[in-house]
Design brief:
Shape: elongated
CATH superfamily of the largest domain: ABC transporter type 1, transmembrane domain
Number of strands: 4
Oligomer: single chain
Order of helices and strands: HHHHHHHHHHHEEHEE
Mean pLDDT: 80
CATH architecture of the largest domain: Up-down Bundle
Number of domains: 2
CATH class of the largest domain: Mainly Alpha
Number of helices: 12
Strand content: 5-15%
Strand order of the largest sheet: 2-1-3-4
Amino acid sequence: MIKTLMGSIRDYMKVTVATPLLVLGEVLCEMLIPFITANLIDAIKDGATVAEMLPTAGFLVLIALTSLAFGAAAGVTCSHASCGFAKNLRHDLFYKIQTFSFANIDEFSTSSLVTRLTTDINNVQQAFMMIIRIAVRAPLVLIFAFTMAFIMGGSVAMVYLVIIPLLGFGLFFIIFKVRPIFSRVFHKYDALNESVEENVTGMRVVKSYVREDFEKEKFATAARDVQMDFTRAEKLLAFNNPMMNICVNGAFVVIIYLGSKLIITSQGTLFDVGQLSSIFTYGFQILMSLMQLSMIFVMVTMAGESAHRITEVLAAEPTIANPAEPVLEVADGSIDFDHVSFKYSEHAKRQALDDIDLHITSGETIGIIGGTGSAKSTLVNLIARLYDATEGTVRVGGMDVR
């Protein structure tokens, strides 16, 4: 699945690769800022003059501006890569659908193909954008912030080791519960689009038989099903931020207690105010990276189902393929059905057409009469080879249409 989707990056590969590299530069600069800030705080505490602190302060400003430049550049390349990827993927999917026979379209349904071309591609685009930028940034910030927190705080930073497994377990539980809901909701999107499609294409029929109220209720039911599933998912996802805030803020309380106690007992020899300040800064960075990771997992969970639906279409083989040497002309316009049978699905219990023998000479005009659902359109579709006959042969001008 991933290999299939990656094929749509093509000419946007350079900006796709450049984005994580720029994010790496941004993260490295960000990790230096709390360390330099801690040194400035210690210098102020030790009575350093403004002139003595100017070089360090200037270096801090330079690092901040460099981080801003890397971040802005990463944002630009990320936008180009994700939008270009979505454009190529939509192009590939659309042109794949153009090769489909009516049987392929019946297999997926028109409403489902519309959803895959719109909602599903948008979900994959958003996930791709998060993967090449935030999914790179968040783990890097988490690793570097942990490392720097342990370097600056030692035993005090051990509190974070207790918090992370708790948050990981909570996040895994939420995703485990939410994923099946997202799987269902996209199928209900198909039903919603199908309801819209039927109303638009059959507007005259609906109005002729005064079925407006029925169709409104049908659409409302489909929309309500989508709303209910999304509400269930959002209720579960709503636990994410409170859980993180409780755990991380609880960790801050413990760090304040342990850090303050260590500063007092050691009189600043083992642990000082600058180190405590830097640990808090790294703690906020850890919190933000964890929240970003949770957003990524949720987005990837949602996009995973969309990606699967897209690759289903891209991997599908047309049931009717163009011949290597097509016939460009036929002798005449005669049409012959020789013991033709047809059913729309191989699992169907009955044939739509059963053992049809029909011979129409060139120039002859005939009428095909039958009630609704008697397969009149099906018979005509076989002449144009919009479907292939299940049994028998259809000939036009004496040539098999296949």
